[in-house]
Design a protein that fits this description.
- The structure is a single chain.
- By secondary structure, this protein is mainly β.
- It has a single domain (10-170), classed as Jelly Rolls (Sandwich), CATH 2.60.120.10.
- The protein has three helices and eleven strands.
- It starts with 9 loop residues before the first helix and ends in an 8-residue tail after the last strand.
- 31% of the residues are buried.
Length: 177
């Protein structure tokens, strides 16, 4: 394993990720790498695209080991309650405030464990199979940067009022808009 530089360009990030098979990668390591990633405002702004219908996802980069996405959220938009089915995730707030909720599955359904307000310049991490939801509960637009270590191939969506779980195949990020 190579030593982590204070700042990583996208190319450096890709090289670091090539040294770490997704099955061996730990969440703390991915968090440290994401915190060191330096992307230009110009690159990120090219991937910001809001929709009134739902939040949007724009692909920045994908390799067999990870994918990097920019998500744009209007006020009131939220993800489903889901897990990433064996993919690690680190989310960095580029603009705005993100509401991050974690859940546990009980015999009565899904129970919320915690809710965090994640501010601009900070982030939140989700380990494999952690049940969570992201939302923009503010009155302002939100832009987030997501890295998934192994690219997100499927998620498990949880019904909040029952113990029902649905496995959903994820289309490629550039097809999700």
């Amino acid at each position: 394993m190579t030593l982590l530089k204070t700042r990583l360009s996208l190319d450096d990030f890709m090289l670091e990720m090539m040294h770490l098979p997704a099955t061996n990668l730990r969440l703390m390591r991915l968090q440290a790498m994401m915190a060191s990633l330096q992307l230009s405002d110009e690159l990120l702004r090219q991937h910001i695209a809001f929709s009134d219908r739902t939040y949007t996802r724009k692909l920045v980069c994908r390799t067999p080991r990870f994918e990097l996405l920019v998500l744009s959220w209007q006020p009131g938009q939220a993800s489903t309650i889901h897990d990433h089915a064996d993919s690690l995730n680190v989310t960095h707030v580029y603009e705005g405030t993100l509401t991050s909720r974690e859940f546990t599955q009980t015999s009565e359904g899904i129970q919320q464990l915690r809710e965090l307000q994640v501010r601009q310049g900070t982030g939140v991490a989700v380990d494999r199979y952690t049940i969570h939801q992201l939302a923009n509960t503010s009155d302002d637009p939100l832009v987030t940067l997501h890295v998934y270590a192994r690219p997100l191939q499927e998620i498990q969506v949880y019904c909040p009022d029952s113990d029902r779980v649905q496995r959903v195949i994820c289309p490629l990020a550039d097809e999700r808009d």
